[in-house]
Amino acid sequence: MKKILIAFYIILLFSCHSFAETKIKAVASFSIIADLVENIGGEHVVVETIVAANQDAHLFQPSPQDVKKVAAADVIFINGLNFEGWISKMISNSGTKGVVVAATTGIKPRYLNHTHEHGHHHHDHDHGIVDPHAWQSLANAKIYVYNIKKALQAIDPSNADDYEKNASNYLAQIKQLEAEVKNRMALIPASNRKVISNHDAFGYFGDEYRIKFLAAASLGIEKQASAKNIANLINQIRADKVKALFVENISDSRLLKQIENDSDAVIGGKLYSDALSEKGGEASTYIDMFRYNVETIADALAG
Question: What is the pTM (predicted TM-score) of this model?
């Protein structure tokens, strides 16, 4: 009888241990969110990504396999601010019982003061169109971290202390990066703080570091540019003395190369806007992406 009881307790302990080691199944809508969740979740969370590295979330079309990922998830992390125009229907079709968490909850959105077709499914407001690219601000990144941490703690309270510790360590990295960025951006002359990119994704960055981003998209020339529109932009580059043009990892660079050939501005490099690079690449994490963008912009505008 004693041996039977000992065996029973061993089985019980093993079962409890196995249950405790069950990992949270998380789905992230795109690669930047996925990296943040991995950092906060640590060993307790398995993260699957819908829109992978170097993929364009604007043009994304979910597959049946993506729907299955969402259906099996305990929690689905999205950006919100109408960034993922396809996500609501996908979640509804999946029948998931997972919790949906908008990582931008509590962030004060900025607005785009134009109404071009941007690829996002924005809602119009009195102030313009909501800019969803809130991750391009390190101050906002802290709010992303807080929202992810609180969601994981609510879903998995037994590991709440670990999520708190992971978030604290990650916030320390952000704080260190903030100091680096402030010092680096301070070296850019005021006269050089105007650039053009081929996708309006850096408004939050520009507001935080006093860089004026003129997006080709905002001038109505992102897709099929007319000769007149290109000429108008070139005239603006010359009049405003725009220092550099930037292409982005998810965008077609041909338009900016055409403008570079006909103006005094030069292509300053590639920026990562809505997606990370592949693993092992120059921008494979959020921290690396932000640092890379800062260095690329600062190098182009320094002289």
Answer: 0.85
